[in-house]
Prior knowledge:
Layout: H1 8-29, H2 53-65, H3 67-70, E1 74-78, H4 82-91, E2 103-107, E3 115-119, E4 125-129, E5 132-133, E6 135-138, H5 147-160, E7 165-170, E8 173-174, H6 181-194, E9 208-212, H7 215-248, H8 252-259
Antiparallel strand pairs: 1-2, 3-4, 4-5, 6-9, 7-8, 7-9
Helix pairs in contact: 1-2, 5-6
Amino acid sequence: MAKKPLTKKQLREKIRLEDYKRQAKKLRATNAFGDLFKAKGGVDFRSPKSWSPAVKSRITRYAKELGPLLASPTKTKRYYRPDHLRSAIEVTGQEKMLKGQKAALFPVDDLREDIEITFDKKHRAHVKRGGIVEQRIYFDPNEMTDADSIMAEVERTLDAAPGKFFKFITGANASKGTFNDLDLLAQLDRMILNYDPDEKPIGDFLYGIKAYPNIRAKTRLTKRDAIHQEKVKARERERLRKLSNERKALTKAEKASMRRGRVK
């Protein structure tokens, strides 16, 4: 017997529940909140329909607060000293420490990336990525509604950023090249000209900036970008080589069949 189709109300509820589950799984995977997003905290994935309104509200609130961080892969660093934990959370770009949070989440471009956190005598955290001092500052997406407000938010963030050279954080990666503040704003101008706000809001892919302190960092980053681009080209050359070998191995009949579009 065929199942009775869902009503519109039931379908909306199913979609909302799937969204809660997706967000809760992402929060649980960080291992930064103890039992808060596990069965002990009222988040039992075996019976999501039993989740209370308070649990659903917590999931939504935490997912919204950590959205920019979780757009990239993250490394979790746990600290047992409260002052070190607060300081580490501050340099990740997270606005405030959340209730029940036991670790700081550091976004990375690659999970193999080396990341080192040190603390000075005043217990302020400093981040080194691949031996380069870096700080990430995130934009407020609520302040990025049109071209003028986007430019104003980026300028405000640059004024507050403790660095001389910068990259944009765009999704899981950073923009190519390292720029001073004026060059970064020029790059932003080009981005604004080339994007359609009706298709995708710029706040959905432009999350913030990475700040670097000096020309030494810029030089090392330029070399790192060049090495990365060479690796990308090498992978593409290898892909094309394998494709060429596969084509050479085809029989004449198979090649003729492919040209006629009969190979599935």
